[in-house]
Amino acid sequence: MSAEGELFTVAALGKDSELFEDNFFRKLCQDRPRVRILIPSIATPTGLVQSLEDGGGRRVLCPVPVVMGLMEPPAAPDCLGELGASNWFLVQWVDVEEEDGFN
Fold it and tell me: How far apart are CA 16 and CA 28, in angstroms?
């Protein structure tokens, strides 16, 4: 851990992790060694929660897209419930983008 602050974990599932590059992380935090990259071996929301382990009351941010015209599948709300059960504190639910639903 750096003297500048706590470890900051960024996680992604499956192909989303291909977007991770050093320049992206430098925008999040100038002290790059503070950023831990987590890509669960099981690319599911449950696999992500299990990889994060017990949160110890730490904060977690979950950016989730809004898909217009489709009913939200239970995966996102279920994941939030699993995070809470694993002692993570949900800071904010962020709608990172709007996508058109399939007709």
Answer: 17
52's CB contacts (< 8 A; 6+ apart) are 9, 11, 38, 60, 83, 86, 88
Q: Which two tokens stand for residue 102?
A: 């399939």
Pairwise CA distance, residues 68 & 43, whole Å: 24
State the average pLDDT over residues 9-30: 80
* pTM of the predicted structure, to 2 decimals: 0.70
Beta-ladder partners of 95: 64
Locate all alpha helices (DSSP H) within the chain, ordered by sequence. 22-28, 45-52, 75-85
Q: Which run of H or of E encompasses 43? A: none
Q: Measure the N-to-C terminal CA separation of the chain; round to a whole number of Å.
A: 48
Residue-wise pLDDT tens digits, 60-100: 877 766 667 777 778 878 988 999 999 999 876 655 555 55
- Residue written as tokens 């809004």? 66
The angle formed by the CA atoms of residues 11, 39 and 3, to the nearest 5 degrees, is: 55
Q: Considering only CA atoms, give the Rg of the chain.
A: 15
